[in-house]
Specification:
Blueprint: E1 2-6, H1 16-21, E2 26-29, H2 42-53, E3 58-63, H3 69-73, H4 78-95, E4 99-102, E5 114-118, E6 124-128, H5 130-140, H6 152-162, H7 168-181, H8 197-206, H9 213-234, E7 237-240, H10 259-268, E8 274-279, H11 280-284, H12 291-298, E9 302-307, E10 310-312, E11 318-320, H13 326-338, E12 343-346, H14 367-393
Helix pairs in contact: 2-4, 4-9, 5-6, 5-7, 12-13, 13-14
Amino acid sequence: MEKTWRWFGPNDPITLEMLRQIGVEGIVTALHHIPNGEVWSLEEVEKMKRFIEDRGLRWSVVESLPVSESIKYGGADRDLLIDSYKESLRSLGKAGVKTVCYNFMPVLDWARTELEYPNADGTSNLYFNRAEFAYFDIHILKRENAERDYDGETLLRMKEEVAPRMDREGERRLVDTIIVKTQGFVNGNISEKDLNPVQKFRELLKLYDGIDADTLRANMVYFLEAIMPVCDEYGINMCVHPDDPPMAILGLPRIVTCDADIEAFLEAVPNPHNGLTFCAGSLSAGGHNDVVALARKYAGRTHFVHARICNVLPNGDFKESSHLDPRLIDIVATFEKENPGVPMRVDHAPLMLGDEKMGYNAGYSFHGRMLALGMVSGIMAACNNLNISNTSNS
């Protein structure tokens, strides 16, 4: 696999020169300065591409070219927004940037309740506490009938463990974590400049009133069928990111959560340019998913790999696991054998060695990802050496 790295542009404190020194081959980035829904001009795309190539690297993957909310819920302006999206794809295709990661998650790109959950070795990781998320949903967001979406054990934990320790600062932290810090740096719907993020978030949720999973899935197919001719013309691979976490949250429909969901959108639009971002971490955050089996099944329709993995706890919480987790080793081995040229980036690594003081975007530390890249590179080398040895002995 191609070793890539998510980089947030010229203002990222992690420079391209640093990335060359640690073995990165390709860059995963976007034109973050252009608002969602606006066209990426060929001039702007080529400017970013030159900036990367002048430093000895290549722009391997766009992550992300955001899909506007109106396209997802089927607003009156979706055709105009899809036309703009197609123009941006043409700019990328003309510049030779051929892999585009996107998601079709309503409102939230991803969700965690803690950004620095302490580990025994002194590092910290991202964490999803289901009872804390329920508290946010029920007591802060005050979503109507939210209690119905949680099991009795989660509601009891919320009442006995979360509510007694929750004060104004704790609520502020939850809001900041769930709808600001995990969203604002990826051209999300909420930013740190918003004075009332909770009210804005409520308004975004209202856009999906009456939108169920079948409607959202139909809107995704509509979008994909509209852009596939452009993808065919320029050889662009679209790869949808699985829902993170892979389950219904906040009353929103979710349509890329499991084997059946993946199979459905690939069969609905069978064009080979319609593919998957295989995020092992997102898929493994659902206990219903056998991520190793999914990697083997969908290796051929995967255009991009996110190398990370999660552990799901008995109470439904989940946290990031080691990049040497046996499941991730099997997944890396699968792609090294079945799709060896696919771009891969490590993801959601621990905060360590002062990373927590550097102001990095949540989940995107330097030292933690560098360690993770070293681990995954070692797995890749071992797989390739084993393949060479087996070939020589056959």
